[in-house]
Amino acid sequence: MSEPDHRAVSTTALSKRFGHQLAVDGIDLAVPSGAVYGFLGPNGSGKTTTIRMLLGLIAPTSGSLTLLGAPLERLGTSLPEVGALVEGPAFHLYLSGRANLRRLDAADRTADPRSASRRIDEALDRVGLLAAADKRYRAYSLGMRQRLAIAAALLTPKRLLVLDEPTNGLDPQGTREVRHLVSSLADDGTTVLVSSHLLSEVEQVCTHVGVMHVGHLVAQGPVASIRAGSAPVARIEVDRPDAAAGIMAELGVTEVRTVHGAALGELGPVPPEKVVAACVHAGLAVTGFRVERPSLEDTFVALTGEGFDVSG
Length: 312
Description:
The protein has ten helices and 15 strands. By secondary structure, it is of the alpha/beta class. The strands form three sheets. Strands 7-8-9-4-10-11 form a six-stranded mixed sheet, sandwiched between helices. Strands 1, 2, 3, 5 and 6 form a five-stranded antiparallel sheet that branches. A hairpin with a 2-residue loop joins strand 13 (254-259) and strand 14 (262-266). Helix 2 (97-106) crosses helix 3 (116-126), helix 4 runs parallel beside helix 5 and helix 8 (241-251) packs across helix 9 (272-281). The longest helix has 16 residues, at 172-187.
């Protein structure tokens, strides 16, 4: 069955209540097939609760969801095509990477035992662990452990991969390893939904994002479109920042402020060259000027009014 509107994940007014607490409040997720969708949110935003509903781990209080073309009431038909890493990997320390995967594969009733050895080696090779397949898990680095967990999710062919904080606790090298793996999976056509607190990493690998805040989905769409919703900021470096700030305000620049040696403000419709010309005409010594496009983190803070926290 093909996905409606070419979406791997689609929800309508999806909500979850725990007692008097409304953890997720009527969200409409739209994850396009083939996308790498970054699911962002500060602590307590409802992000992990949403992921649990998508995977059938908890039932929604109200609303509907469709996963790989299957509605909520037939979710079991689509789950064999979904790989997931939620709350970190759990493996036997004394077993090798290959032996751990063999145990997991044997427990999967949908997996063909006749092809187990081939599929296990293919999964290990896919995540770059084939050379370390017979090394005991306790000797694996954090990055290797996360990659083994992703290999476990790929033992049978998957059309959708859901990763909840896959780089949590990793060093920069481990983070790069997981990022490159996600990119390669997406290149092969797998849809990846990844929640992460590393906004710079999300910006590098994700094609789409959704931002959660206090149970609400406050923004969603292609990364470029989300960033475009935040105004570019002009930064002019001058000998008298206070005077430059006054000139910018007179020109119609908004959110004007000063930092050491510079004045900043949101340009809006004001041409950037007009700011420079006005400051020079006023006799200010201009030593630098640039227009700074907002990062995904800047946009996140503008949407939620707070910084980012690692959990959610």
